[in-house]
């Protein structure tokens, strides 16, 4: 008997006297904390992103190409990883070598890339979290974990929700979900913060209107 079979057997024995038609537990969780307008929700997202040390920018859709060009230029990025269906016009002003997201990309190739630019699936205002689900404008999970600089574009207000329960309603649980709250960081026992341990050292979020 395997360990798995032994554990499942114990679970079945523990549940043997539980009626099959027992009513489910009622959990009256709040769907969001307080009532906010759309503009207030976007403001809360920006505040919490910044609180997690993400760098927040705002622009219109027409300003996005120039802003992305400026951000990558300021970072000194000579190469940028590009998801398969990132809107082409986003990077039309960018002067950098494109590294296209492919199954053949090696960790070493991605580690040499200066930046990655992606879209997102949804952004949660109350927690300052952006969620990636591997859609074509976001690419494979690894392209947002290996490069040291991630620029994530969030369309507001369409991709912004107040709370985690609202975000979960929009997400497919079978997809590879990555929940990101600020740049990668950890602290040792003396609370010395170290960034870039298991993801990008720098996270820039662009809130795009229009």
TrEMBL record:
Q: Where is the LUD domain?
A: 43-208
* Pfam families per record: LUD_dom
Descriptive protein name: Lactate utilization protein B/C
Taxonomic source organism = Streptomyces mutabilis
